[in-house]
């Protein structure tokens, strides 16, 4: 029995994951050569195997469906002879972030796919990413490197919201309602991801010789730092401990590791993830001041991401996703002939 043709959703997910896996594959190959801790190296190797298998499986789908395989990224985008740029702690945090992103992405991919073989592919990868994330957190806990979310006092009983002041109290600088657990969750996670983003931008700015791109990453570093400081402030205002990753950083190497194309693309992925995180946090927050902050920061990230896309476009580094047929153009073309 012939398989149904792939839906636009399936093609879009397969294409997106192939591009991102191709990029991550190059990054992990470099990490494998520079990581020093054996336990973290095991996680890097496990991640690399997972990425390579997913990439190979998607290639097989593309070939069987007669779809063009994206150029994506190759060994030309990495200098495997470069000295160590990021610390082992950052590498561990990168894999943790990769695990979180993977479980989110492949959960959506599975939910939006129709064909059984494509659902099966995404389901398998989702389980593998979940396993990787769990193992990464276990290693981080064992080494005392895992940054735990803040704790709060457990409530004694169920309480109900009384009046609109619960939502608007954050607008009063002299009497702000303390943060609830859901708000703390999002503030902490966004603080953590911006702390990582700051480090990555620092390393990229340190190793590119393109002035425009260097300035772009320096701006990203400043933006991440500003956002992290705001989240830290909002947590401490409610007397909530706001831990940040320690001893996570960049070495003093200035040798280029990654191509400008790869670095810009990774930053575009991180920016898109950041916008998604802020959108989720905005809808989950119940204090108007938090909602306002997230909406404002989302605009800042969107404008910053646009600058990055402009550079990618100018250098012809952006591949076009598979497109639907432009019927109007076909009709116009047919009329002319």
Automatic annotation (TrEMBL):
One short Pfam name that applies is: DUF3231
Among InterPro entries, the record links this protein to: DUF3231, Ferritin-like
This chain's protein is named DUF3231 family protein
């Amino acid at each position: 029995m012939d398989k149904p043709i792939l839906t636009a959703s399936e093609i879009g997910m397969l294409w997106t994951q192939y591009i991102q896996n191709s990029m991550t594959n190059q990054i992990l190959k470099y990490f494998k050569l520079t990581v020093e801790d054996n336990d973290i190296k095991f996680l890097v190797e496990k991640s690399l195997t997972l990425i390579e298998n997913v990439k190979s499986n998607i290639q097989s789908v593309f070939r069987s469906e007669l779809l063009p395989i994206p150029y994506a990224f190759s060994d030309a985008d990495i200098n495997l002879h470069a000295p160590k740029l990021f610390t082992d702690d950052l590498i561990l945090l990168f894999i943790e972030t990769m695990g979180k992103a993977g479980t989110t992405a492949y959960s959506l991919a599975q939910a939006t796919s129709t064909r059984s073989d494509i659902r099966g592919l995404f389901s398998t990868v989702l389980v593998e990413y979940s396993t990787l994330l769990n193992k990464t957190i276990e290693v981080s806990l064992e080494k005392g490197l895992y940054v735990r979310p803040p704790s709060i006092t457990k409530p004694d009983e169920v309480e109900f919201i009384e009046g609109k002041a619960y939502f608007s109290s954050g607008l009063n600088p002299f009497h702000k309602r303390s943060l609830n657990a859901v708000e703390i969750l999002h503030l902490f996670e966004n603080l953590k991801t911006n702390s990582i983003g700051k480090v990555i931008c620092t390393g990229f700015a340190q190793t590119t010789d393109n002035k425009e791109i260097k300035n772009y990453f320096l701006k990203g570093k400043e933006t991440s730092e500003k956002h992290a400081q705001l989240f830290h402030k909002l947590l401490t205002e409610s007397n909530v401990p706001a831990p940040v990753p320690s001893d996570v950083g960049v070495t003093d190497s200035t040798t280029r590791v990654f191509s400008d194309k790869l670095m810009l693309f990774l930053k575009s992925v991180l920016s898109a993830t950041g916008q998604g995180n802020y959108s989720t946090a905005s809808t989950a927050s119940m204090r108007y001041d938090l909602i306002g902050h997230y909406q404002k920061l989302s605009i800042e990230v969107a404008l910053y991401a646009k600058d990055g896309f402009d550079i990618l476009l100018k250098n012809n580094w952006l591949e076009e996703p598979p497109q639907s047929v432009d019927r109007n153009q076909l009709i116009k073309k047919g009329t002319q002939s």
